[in-house]
User: Fold this.
Amino acid sequence: MPATPMKNLIYGAALPFLAPSPRGQMTHAVQGEIRTLAEYERILCRHHVFGASLLLKDDHRQSMVHTSTRRPAHHADDRTLYRVASITKTATALVTLMLADQGLLTLDTPVGSILPEAGNEPALQGVTVRHLLCHRSGLRDTAAYQAALDKGESWQRVLRAEDVQGSKPGESFSYCNFGFGLLGCAIESVTNKSVAAVFDELLFRPAGMRASLDASTLDESLIMPITRVLPYRAGTDVTVTRLGRKPLAAPQPLLHFGHTAGAMYTDAPSLSRMLTLIACHGALDGRQLVSEAAIHEMTTLHGYSGPKDKPIRRYGLGLVLLENPSVSSRRLLGHQGFAYGCVDGAFVEEGTGRQVILLNGGSSERREGKLGLINRDTLRWALNREMPLWT
Assistant:
């Protein structure tokens, strides 16, 4: 993944020559009306997108496009499920806030007080639930994190790695998948239920979402394979990881730290329901699923990276707060998802409720700051070109 400006430059230069192109091999199944479909296809070709579902929504209508490609074979239709990577963090934040509404924890609860056997862990001293939700815990992702997941070891092994603590809690913003994984363990600890069951009970079923954290329960033939387009290696598609094949039937709060950062499987209409819940201040279909106060906390700026006067990323609680005038004059709420080659995005525009959701099975991973170029260009096209034509 091109994580630095230099790597991003080299990646972009190599992309036209070394990445497979979907040009000439796309078919689109359109539901509703898309007036500038050719422009959308050019964006997909420019960013080497393989297999995708797009959802656009405003107050009056919704349109979808399922795009399938032949080589590599990526078929998309209404039944297709996508691993949405870090968009999972928004769902994790909502579930955590629902538990706070129930009084099972608070945003300022010390994490060490609710994780089993964590009271004396030095790396957790001073770390609160809020810190984990906004990436200000001081924890960082290390090689020990992935190694513990691969070997089925406890998160305690990760916490005792020498380089796990990069700063003091609350001191700075540092995006951390491990921190969001610990939230899953905390959820299991305070509910005594598996994290998959809690998500089903509090969020997925009440919000009418077709979604799961437990990939072992899914029909794998319905899952969009993910292909890394650069470097491209045929036959290395990912549908379900080795960790994802392990059932989440029972709570294991020492071990289940590999799911709540990026392992949700769902579809675009379900993500639209989740965005509507946030945009409507916690209410959906006439039911208040999460308190207005909790949504206010979620959508408030809690952390940022880059210079204070021009941050390259703004973050609430499990939520990207996107302010990019080239995309919209309004703030966008949502999240991106990068994993194994996909570059997903799900955003809702404040004040208008317009939604743009793009899920895919592989794409160029080039970025502008922290914003994937495929998401930037899709948002620009949808909000400034396609959707204005609807009225």
DSSP finds eleven helices and 15 strands in the chain. The longest helix spans residues 177-191. Residues 8 and 348 are 27 Å apart (CA to CA). The longest strand covers residues 62-69.
